[in-house]
Design goal:
The protein is an all-beta fold. It has a domain of 131 residues: YVTN repeat-like/Quinoprotein amine dehydrogenase (Methylamine Dehydrogenase, Chain H, 7 Propeller). The strands form 8 sheets. A 4-stranded antiparallel β-sheet has the order 1-32-31-30, with no helix packed on it. Strands 2-3-4-5 form a 4-stranded antiparallel β-sheet, with no helix packed on it. β11 and β12 form a beta hairpin. The two termini are 14 Å apart.
C-alpha cells in the first residue's frame, strides 16, 4: 500500500508537509530531506542533529542542535531566521506567519516581520503550543505550564502548577484544556475555566506523542499497546475511562497523528508497523506490517490523502490513503 519507501540514511526526528504537499524530513545527521513525488534532495541544514520541523504555509521551519532556526522556502532554498549559539532548538510551533521556538529556558516568539519576544521560565522549555487564534501560547517546563499573551510587552504568566517534568504540551481545539506529557507514564491536564487538574495515567510507557482529533473530541495518545483516546467533551475526561483502539497484540504505540479533518488517527508501533483507526467506528486497518526499528515520526498531508512515516533506523515512506475512501460518514475504514 506504500507508494514510496526509501532509506533516509539517519534517524527521522520529525516530518512535515507544507501547504503544497511537499514533504520534509528532519534527520539526525543534520539534514533536511525534501520529497516531491519520487524525487528527493538533501539539504545540509545543521551542524549537529535536526530535532524539530514544522510547516508554515508553503515553507518549512527547521531547528536543531546548533541553535540556528532556518526557513526552507518553496524552492528548497534555506535561509537563517534566527540563531542562539550554544542552545538547542527542540520545540517549534507556528501560527500564521509567526513562529514559537523553545530555546533553553526561553520560548521565543518570532513575528512575521522578524521581531522577537522572549518568555523566560524557571527551567528548560519542554514544549510549546499556540492557543486557537494565536493570541496566547502555552509553554511546558519543570513544575507545570506557563500561559502567556502574545501582545503585551510586560506581563506575568498564568501558571498551571504540577510537580514534575513536563516534556510536551498541547492545547485543545476549543482552547479550554491544556495537556502535558510527564516524565512518568502519565499525562497531566488542566481545565482552564476552573484550573481543575486532570491526571491521565495507567500507561505501560511514557506517552510522548499525543494529538487532539479534529472530531470527535478526543485526545489520541501513545504509550500503550493500543491507541488510548481520552474524551474531552463536556467537562473533560475526569471520571471517564479512555477508549482503547486498534492494537497489534503486544508492540507499543510510539507515535500518533490525527487526520486534518476526518475522525481518523494513525499509530506507529515499536515494531515498525503502522495502523489506521477510525475513531467513530472504532475499527482499524493495518498499513504496514513492520520494519527494522520503531516508528519515530508520522504526518498526514494537508488534505489527509497521504500518510508519511519515518523510523529510528532511517526508514521512510509515503502511504496513499485514497484507496481507503476515507469518508466522515463511514463507520469503519
Amino acid at each position: 500500500m506504500a507508494d514510496l519507501t526509501w532509506q533516509a540514511g539517519a534517524h527521522v526526528a520529525a516530518l512535515a508537509f507544507d501547504a503544497g504537499g511537499r514533504l520534509g524530513l528532519a534527520l539526525g545527521d543534520g539534514r533536511v530531506q525534501i520529497v516531491r513525488g519520487d524525487k528527493r534532495i538533501d539539504l545540509a541544514c545543521q551542524d549537529g542533529a535536526m530535532s524539530a520541523l514544522v510547516a508554515q504555509g508553503p515553507d518549512l521551519i527547521a531547528g536543531g542542535d546548533d541553535g540556528r532556526l532556518r526557513r526552507i522556502a518553496a524552492d528548497d532554498s534555506p535561509a537563517e531566521i534566527a540563531a542562539w549559539p550554544g542552545q538547542w532548538i527542540e520545540h517549534l510551533a507556528v501560527d500564521g506567519g509567526r513562529v514559537l521556538a523553545g530555546v533553553g529556558k526561553r520560548a521565543v516568539l518570532i513575528e512575521a516581520d522578524g521581531r522577537q519576544k522572549s518568555f523566560l521560565h524557571p527551567s528548560t522549555v519542554g514544549g510549546v503550543a499556540f492557543f486557537p487564534g494565536g493570541k496566547r501560547v502555552a509553554v511546558a517546563h519543570y513544575g507545570g505550564v506557563s500561559l502567556w499573551w502574545t501582545k503585551p510587552e510586560t506581563q506575568e504568566p498564568k501558571r498551571l502548577a504540577w510537580k514534575g517534568s513536563h516534556l510536551a504540551v498541547a492545547v485543545s481545539p476549543d482552547g479550554k484544556y491544556v495537556v502535558t506529557a510527564m516524565q512518568e507514564n502519565a499525562l497531566h491536564g488542566w481545565r482552564l475555566a476552573d484550573a481543575q487538574d486532570m491526571r491521565m495515567s495507567g500507561y505501560a510507557a511514557k506517552p510522548r506523542s499525543f494529538a487532539f482529533a479534529a472530531r470527535p473530541n478526543l485526545l489520541v495518545t501513545s504509550g500503550a499497546d493500543v491507541i488510548v483516546a481520552w474524551p474531552f467533551s463536556g467537562p473533560g475526561p475526569m471520571g471517564k475511562p479512555p477508549l482503547e483502539l486498534g492494537g497489534l497484540g503486544g508492540p507499543l504505540v510510539m507515535r500518533v497523528a490525527c487526520h486534518p479533518s476526518q475522525p481518523i488517527a494513525a499509530a506507529g508501533y515499536e515494531s515498525g508497523a503502522i495502523q489506521l483507526v477510525d475513531l467513530a467506528g472504532r475499527r482499524g486497518v493495518g498499513l504496514r506490517e513492520g520494519g527494522e526499528a520503531p516508528i519515530t515520526a508520522l504526518a498526514f498531508s494537508p488534505g489527509g490523502e497521504r500518510l508519511a512515516f519515518g523510523s529510528d533506523a532511517g526508514e521512510a515512506g509515503l502511504i496513499d490513503l485514497a484507496a481507503l475512501a476515507l469518508d466522515a460518514k463511514r463507520q469503519t475504514v
